[in-house]
Amino acid sequence: MAKPAKIIDEAPELPELQISPEKVCFVIAKAREFDAKDAVSESDPGSNASDDKMTSVLEDHTDDPVVEELTSVINDMNEDEQIDLVALVWLGREDYSAADWAEVRKEAARAHNKNTARYLLGIPLLGDFLEDGFALLGRSCEKFELDHL
Hints:
Elements: H1 21-35, H2 65-76, H3 79-92, H4 101-111, H5 116-121, H6 126-136, H7 142-147
Helix pairs in contact: 1-2, 1-6, 3-4, 3-6
């Protein structure tokens, strides 16, 4: 009689991130606010904000508080955290696969400079790419979203 096959739990080991899941999820949430911005339009000079249904909040102004907050948060991160953010974006853009995480991170470290916030904020769909990269590494912002609703 044949012996039953051993079932080996081969769940892939999640790579260790230098950035906390909370920081990643916060950046994703803020990036989505930023991505929702529209070009500034010239409103009727005789109108007021309440008549315009406060649509100016959705316009991309140079003094946008969301941009300022995201820039500040990213600039306040240490180098390893910034490298992880960039690597997660590259992973989420499908430039690499999850199996390539070590390589992606090394490449992001080689490319790292003091302009990380500007670089990341210049990427359309930043929030989506970050979330996709995070998911490829087996992580989710579901708990963060529930805690912050």
